[in-house]
């Protein structure tokens, strides 16, 4: 049984490593993994938490929500006007454009605001949209994530491995 769990754990770690553009992060502690159930903010502030949640979102065909949120976070760190323009256009094409296969679900008011702001993009062009997607993930996907096999088995694995040490 322990060998099976070790093999499962190893295959799980490799799966996370093969997620394209997955954030590099340390293995989460049992306390950290348990904390994700206490608050969506804790989950989203943790690189390991975002990776696991992103893996779950992929199973629900809504990974673009996390990818959009991460792209917005990255844009906020930019200071160079030319880079901001470039990244804003890419985010728009990838996640806002109705022609994109990775389009995120936004209401018409937020879309209008973005269309206006795209005339002169800034690092905060997508703030309203990012908040709307964050809220959507929090209300919609997060409760299902906490009940998912992905989260439950990770919780079991980290609890089990910490009790061995």
Automatic annotation (TrEMBL):
Gene3D superfamilies: 1.10.196.10, Regulator of G-protein Signalling 4, domain 2. One of its GO terms (cellular component) is membrane. Keywords: Cytoplasm, Glycoprotein, Lipoprotein, Membrane, Nucleus, Palmitate, Signal transduction inhibitor, Ubl conjugation. The keyword Transmembrane does not apply. GO terms for biological process: G protein-coupled receptor signaling pathway; negative regulation of signal transduction. It holds the Pfam family RGS. It comes from the Eukaryota. InterPro entries: RGS (IPR016137), RGS_sf (IPR036305), RGS_subdom1/3 (IPR024066), RGS_subdomain_2 (IPR044926). Residues 39-155 form the RGS domain. SUPFAM superfamilies: Regulator of G-protein signaling, RGS. It is a lipid-anchor. The keyword Cytoplasm applies. It is found in: Cytoplasm; Membrane; Nucleus. Inhibits signal transduction by increasing the GTPase activity of G protein alpha subunits thereby driving them into their inactive GDP-bound form. Binds selectively to G(z)-alpha and G(alpha)-i2 subunits, accelerates their GTPase activity and regulates their signaling activities. The G(z)-alpha activity is inhibited by the phosphorylation and palmitoylation of the G-protein. Negatively regulates mu-opioid receptor-mediated activation of the G-proteins. PANTHER family: REGULATOR OF G PROTEIN SIGNALING (PTHR10845), REGULATOR OF G-PROTEIN SIGNALING 19 (PTHR10845:SF145). Forms a complex with G(alpha)z/i2 subunits and mu-opioid receptors; the formation of this complex results in mu-opioid receptor desensitization. Interacts with OPRM1. This is Regulator of G-protein signaling 20. It comes from Drymodes brunneopygia.
